[in-house]
Predict the structure.
Amino acid sequence: MALPLAAFAAPTEIVSRASGMMDTDWLVLEHLDFGFDASAGQLPYELVIRSSWDSEVDTIFDSGQRVSGYGIPVAVTLTIGDKTFEYATAPWQGDAGYLQTGQYGYLHEVDFSYGGYDVSVSLSHAFPGGLTESPLAPRDAGAGGGVPGYLRIQTYPGNPDAPGSWQMDANAIASSVQVTSPVPEPGMGAMALAGLGALLWRRRREPARA
């Protein structure tokens, strides 16, 4: 009896958070429709990055401590001052992401298109001693007090023949990253296994047929 893969598979969800002060670039802010003028200067910010990784439906390249993916759902919520930018992958499209662990900690990057520009948002979490596990390994690092981090936002023209690239960088006073693999619902994995067990038990009880 074959069971559907969906009964067992669940995407790995990654959520990164950061907060601090940012020296703003008015062109990047304009590309993201913030509406600040050129004199915005240094402002407080809060960032949340989400990405979902499912090897059953996404294109994922995993080389141990470096993982890249295409066609993955991503979401970004960035508040600067009193204004907020929000982005989430539409159901009919997929975006890109990159993860890395190493001597400097954990890198979480998402890439998407918005308003005619290609946008890259990356957050580096600096963990003392670094990290050696896979970026997809479950973890809840920096929760509570948080750890130092570094944020970079880059925008490029959507037309690859058009010149130009712009970026904003900021230190994170506190950052955290959570990696979770949800447990399948009882109605899926557990019930499928229970049904299989009942079927095998019944077959053992049936007399052999000539």
Summary: The chain is about 10% helix and 50% strand. The chain has one domain: 11-183.
